[in-house]
Structure formats: structure tokens, C-alpha cells
Amino acid sequence: MSRRDFLLLAAICFVWAVNAVVSRYAIADAGVPPLLLSAARFALAAAVLSPLLRPLPRPLAPLILVSLLMGAGHFGVLMIGYGLVDASVVAILLQVGIPMTALFSALILGERIAARRLVGIALALAGIVAVLWRPDAHMSGLGAAAVLVAAASLALGSVLMKRLAAISPMRLQAWTSLSSIWPLAAASLAFEPGRAADVLTQPLVFGGTVLFASLAVTVISHTGYYRLLRRYEASLVSPLTLMFPLMTVVLGQVLLGERPDAAFFAGTVLVLAGVALVATSAARPTADHTT
């Protein structure tokens, strides 16, 4: 990877880390409703990407399902997690999505899980247990569960996406945004009644978070990331994205005053080692082709 592209990937990971910290602050400290925040994020992204919605893709139903899993199912539930657990914990727990993707690929697509991946999955799961096992510290079980569900939703959507007809990454982002507005808005009305008024007390926080998540993350960073994936093998790009959780841990400590304990750091090492094993075996050459 060229120095320029490495710096681009580092910048993308930094944007993701900033978004994690900003989301945690907006929801946990400023009291912004998480589901309403997610709905607003996708509404703005859908407006920006609306020219990419045409022509209408066929078949539409599988695309909508994938869009809901990767949009509302992932980000909506993830925002709930940000309101309950530290940003650094969220960033580490999200990494279990890579082993989950390998498992879903085996169950749904019939892909074989090599021994290297099995070791990586076991290490990642052991790390998750270490991160969550804190008898003497406060840890929201609901928040951790929400993050793991969000990771599973994204992993399942990523696997099902392989069955879709060819679609550009930005068109997928456009349909993900459009499909996710409505269930998130409905969920906000049902589970956050009257909380829309809370936005009026923190208009700058709400507006800034929506703008950053929609434009800097969804439109700009994801576009750059997909371009790198087209240029380089996934086995090279995926391990380097581990800069994201590491940056999030640092920013969480500096900006939010988070203080991870020794168990967290031990679990983090196990999770990242396991994820690296899974990611670096994801595109290993075989006798016939490179996967």
C-alpha cells in the first residue's frame, strides 16, 4: 500500500473514531434520543445520495432486506449501545463482527472455515468475555448486548449482500439510507415519545452530530474505504482498520475521560489478535483463485 493510501485509511479510521466519541457524548451526556438521531442521519444521507436511487434496482426486496440489516438494524441498535457503554468498549465489541461474518458465510453460503479462522474466532470470543467480565465495575449488559446485536446485523447484511446483483457501494449507501429512515422514525415515535423536544435543548450537538455522521462518515469516509477495497486485497485493508478501535480508546480517554481497566486492555489484545487472524485469512490464495 502506498504511503498516500495508508494515510487515507488512517484518516478514515480517525473519522470513524471521532464519530464514535461524538455519538457517545451526544447520546449519553447531551441526552440526544438515539433512534431519532439515527433517523435524522439517514434522512440527510438519503437526500444527498438521492440521485443514485435511480434507476430502480431489480430485484428490490433482497436489496431492501440487506439495507435494513446494514442500516437500521446496525446503526439504530448501535446508537442505543452508545448511550449505555463507553465508546472504547463499543469500538472493541464491534470488532467481533468480522468473526461473525466468517460464521454467517459458513452457515449461509457454505464457505469453509479454515483452522486459522477458527483460532481467530476463539481468541475474539475470549477477548469479548474478558472485556465484559468486570465483577467490580459497572457494565450495562443491555448496552453490550445492543452492540453485539448491531455487529451481528451488519455481519449478516454483509454476507447476504454477496447474493445481490452487482451494485455500486454508493448506490447501496443510498438505498440503505432511504430504507432505514422509516423504521427508525417509527421506533423513535414508539420508544422515545416526547423526546423530540430534547433536541431543541441541544440543537448544536444534534445538528453537528447528524452532519458529521451523514457527510463525513456515510458519504465521504465510506466512499474512500470502498475505493481502497477495490484497489487492494481485503486481507491487507481489513487488519489496518484495527486502527479505528485503538484510536477510539485513546480519544475516549482524552475527550470523555474514560478509564479502561486492565481486564479491558487484556480483552482488547485478544479481540484484535483474533480479528487479525480472521481478516488476514479472508483473502488467502487457493489452488484455483483468491478469495
How many strands in all?
0
Gap between N and C termini: 19 Å
Oligomer kind = single chain
- Count every helix, treating DSSP H or I runs of 4 or more residues as helices: 14
Instruction: Identify the overall geometry.
Output: globular
Helical coverage, percent range: over 70%
> How many domains comprise the coordinates?
1
Give an overview in words:
The protein has helices at residues 3-29, 34-49, 60-70, 72-82, 87-94, 97-109, 115-132, 141-161, 169-191, 196-201, 203-231, 234-240, 243-256, 262-280. The protein is mainly alpha-helical and 291 residues long. The chain has one domain (3-280). α4 packs antiparallel against α8. The longest helix is centred in the C-terminal third of the chain and has 29 residues, at 203-231. Residues 283-291 have low confidence and may be disordered.
Quick rundown:
The chain has 291 residues and is mainly α. The chain has helices at 3-29, 34-49, 60-70, 72-82, 87-94, 97-109, 115-132, 141-161, 169-191, 196-201, 203-231, 234-240, 243-256, 262-280.
Feature tags:
291 residues; mainly alpha; EamA_dom; AA-Vitamin_Transporters
Topology:
Blueprint: H1 3-29, H2 34-49, H3 60-70, H4 72-82, H5 87-94, H6 97-109, H7 115-132, H8 141-161, H9 169-191, H10 196-201, H11 203-231, H12 234-240, H13 243-256, H14 262-280
Helix pairs in contact: 1-5, 1-11, 1-13, 2-4, 2-9, 2-11, 3-4, 3-8, 3-9, 4-8, 5-8, 5-13, 6-8, 7-14, 12-14
